[in-house]
Amino acid sequence: MTLLEGSVGVEDLVLLEPLEQESLLKNLQLRYEKKEIYTYIGNVLVSVNPYQQLPIYGPDFIDKYRDYTFYELKPHIFAVANVAYQSLRFRDQDQCVLITGESGAGKTEASKLVMSYVAAVCGKGEQVNSVKEQLLQSNPVLEAFGNAKTIRNNNSSRFGKYMDIEFDFKGSPLGGVITNYLLEKSRVVKQLKGERNFHIFYQLLAGADAQLLKALKLERDTSGYAYLNGEVSRVDGMDDASNFKAMQSAMTVIGFSEEEMRWVLEVTALVLKLGNVELSNECQANGIPASGICDERGIREIGEIAGLNSEELERALCSRTMETAKEKVVTALNAVQAQYARDALAKNIYSRLFNWIVNRINESIKVGTGERKKVMGVLDIYGFEILEDNSFEQFVINYCNEKLQQVFIEITLKEEQEEYKREGIPWEKVDYFDNGTICNLIEHNQRGILAMLDEECLRPGVVSDSTFLAKLNQLYSKHSYYESKVTQNTQRQYDHTMGLSCFRICHYAGKVTYNVNSFIDKNNDLLFRDLSQAMWKARHPLLQSLFPEGDPKQASRKRPPTAGAQFKSSVAILMKNLYSKNPNYIRCIKPNEHQQRGQFSWELVATQAQYLGLLENVRVRRAGYAFRQVYGPFLERFRLLSRSTWPRWNGGDREGVEKILGELSVSSKEVTFGKTKIFIKSPKTLFYLEEQRRLRIQQLATLIQKMYRGWRCRTHYQQMRKSQILISSWFRGNRQKKRYGKIRASVLLIQAFVRGWKARKDYRKYFRSGATLTLTNFIYKSMAQKFLLRLKNNLPSTNVLDKKWPAAPYKCFNTANRELQQLFYQWKCKKFRDQLSPKQVEILREKLCASELFKGKKAAYPQSVPIPFRGDYVGLQGNPKLQKLKNRQEGSVLVAETVKKVNRSNGKTSSRILLLTKEHVILADTKKSQAQIVIGLESVTGVSVSPFKDGLFGLHLSEISSVGSKGDFLLVSEHVVELLTRMHRAVLDTTQRQLPISVTEQFSVRFKESDVTVKVIQGPQSHEKGKLSCKKKGSRGLEVTVP
């Protein structure tokens, strides 16, 4: 690596002297105090959180690090992001950026910087910019719903996030996929002292306007909500109101509709109000303890938001239904149990809402399956946590960090040594801590702690946290990384910090004591079936979709997987994903516990440096080689540096690499040849090779430019020469053609004069011979004049229906007479159209549409021609109930009339009010004037109508629509021509498609059970006083007799 002048301390710890823990920490402290927060360990970046905004992330820095190689400038996160992006783009290698460290070390900000750099350097274009904006705007939304203030961090991620950004072959982003891990949903109902709930609750109360708060039935004061920590309602440096606006704007950019955003806020408000539902002890008549709701207003408002009966919700909260194979038993819950059910419901609603938001973002940024993609993954996951009271959440969080450390150990340390051994290169062994034993202690399929926890949850009989701890003590009594009060007593050790309900694991980051209280409940993560079914019955679309298991049709007695099993599976998939990509490491360090700028806590940083393995990493890099690559790609990249290998090399890859380095006089101490790879000791040598390659590319580019310019000039000269010859030949030919033309014209003129003189001389005595032609022309013109004057005085009326026209007096004028007749008729039509108002034009268009649909097909059509379409046949304006029904639908009502609906089972008819709007067909009860059926026009697939004078028609619906699943409709209308004409136009305007209207005596309709063939026959004129009658013909036939 080239050392920059004026650098602070050592920029790459590989060059540190002496190599000790003390000197490493001193170097980090020196650079941190000078605001140099980034330091390299080879290609690993160490980042110390400055707790302030530094002016090192602007567009100038992005352009600077884009144009230089990794070791050419100061250490920076942009350099790591640039290496990952360039490797993905030019070397076609999938990348992942692993950002690890404690909570509060700056992992979330580091992931944002990586994404912003990639977005700035990749391709541009309207579609590309839209994708980049959606990827970047996912951060404010996920932070609002997934981050919270903790004791250690004001913006701590309380969930794990892994984002795969997918690129095309040009390096332009196509989209991405976000995977979330284990949201800390227990924070919804309880927070430690000095901590807050998730940001969205405070942002909603602070940033929503008064109208929105009223609609959500919320008050702005945070102290009025049991789920919010009133002591810490605000955070220094964080504006909840502006963050709420930014979150809404981000959701809009991502593609959330206004309706979806409203749904999300309503569910969020519902969770807040659940916390205010107070439950008290009651007693049933038989003396069994029960519970009840203290304040009916709160439960009623929750029911209004969710579209749920408040009594049904109260019953689900205060009782539990136990279902066996033979019977159902309803058990009343006491106040403590009911409060547990309430909190479980709140946690489940919020957790499922968060998963829905992640899936909705994925829908907007997903990439089509057909495109070939390159992938860059960015991992931002919760850091290692050691709290005063560590529970199940800290256990699985630390397990995930243990697995990430294992990835780092295996890839950065273990594989480093093993690779040198495979390549046959001498290596000074570096001892390192392998945490595989700890991972195995937690995740072993049969004997791991998670497996024991699942076994205890599934075991019949009395199960508690104490029995779980007893099983662990029995199983791991001699395990070197497990401790508890029982194991200490066995070894005659005394530790007053170890509680009776606790166990301790010696993690790579230090010893952590876990309290087993609530381990069983949190792992079970059970929600009573009554609550799931109650939520599924809610009329709120989003809330109902969050609880599919509440659907009685999908009810299952199968026990869902435990929270621990789900998280273990997710971590296994994450590890597989990370192993399949080329890793880039960013190790984040928290300099102090108080989030103060400029403070450097020696003990805290030393602890983090120890469990991050920084010193071991330096030793490995120092004892080994900074760069290695397979001979083939290395030769392909650097073969242009040697005349022997450029432009072609016919020998082996290793011989070619040796030839290149030999001609460049690279020291043998800097290079070692393995069995399949070339190893370069110091980055300085690699930078030298890259610099020589850059200069050589410039030389080759200059050579190519020279050859191209020479070829272009020669080609241009040849084209100019050919053009000059062609122009000269055309000019000379054109000049001769003009001269020849003038001579020929002169000769023809002389000849004409001579022939004229001779003709006049020979036929002078016959000068009156042309009088006949003159007279004929005069007579014809006189006849034409008289014809036109007569036509002018006898023009027909300007009525467009009057098609009279005088006949031509002579046959020679027939053609002209027909043309004049056509012109006059067109003029009359234009004049008629100019006089029409827009309303009259619309009426004529409707009549024209009716003519196209029914003329010559429907016997009732001729009667409808002279009658204008009224639309309203039920007195819509004078009927308040119908007016209220109309106001519920968007758009104006096109047709309102009373129709008869044919019953599907017996063929009888019943009256209904039919309203046709621009988007819906509504069937309402004639007595109550309430909408019974609302059919979207996009669900109407066709209409079948008989050719007779009756008003029977079949309305065919799509099977996939909610109304269409019940079957088609058979209706009778007295104004069927008007109704179907306006429906045809409304479908065309709304869906941009033609509505198929079939005029036939026999057609098929789809009822819920099966298809039914409707046959229309014409009866005698006296048939039941002209009424329509329906008669069932078997199970699949219906005969309709019309007058």
Summarize the structure.
The chain is of the alpha+beta class. Helix content is 46%, strand content 16%. It is built from 32 helices and 31 strands.
Descriptive report:
- With about 1050 residues, this protein is α+β, with helices and mostly antiparallel strands.
- Among the domains are: about 15-255 and about 345-400 and about 565-630, Kinesin (3-Layer(aba) Sandwich); about 635-680, Alpha-Beta Plaits (2-Layer Sandwich); about 685-795; about 840-1005, PH-domain like (Roll).
- It has an eight-stranded mixed sheet with strand order 23-22-21-20-26-25-24-27, covered by helices on one side. A seven-stranded mixed sheet has the order 1-2-16-3-12-6-7, with helices on both faces. The chain has a four-stranded mixed sheet with strand order 28-29-31-30, with no helix packed on it.
- The longest helix has about 80 residues, at about 685-760.
- It starts with 20 loop residues before the first helix and ends with a strand.
- Involved in directing the movement of organelles along actin filaments.
- This is Unconventional myosin-Ia.
- One of its GO terms (molecular function) is calmodulin binding.
- Keywords: Actin-binding, ATP-binding, Calmodulin-binding, Motor protein, Myosin, Nucleotide-binding, Phosphoprotein, Repeat.
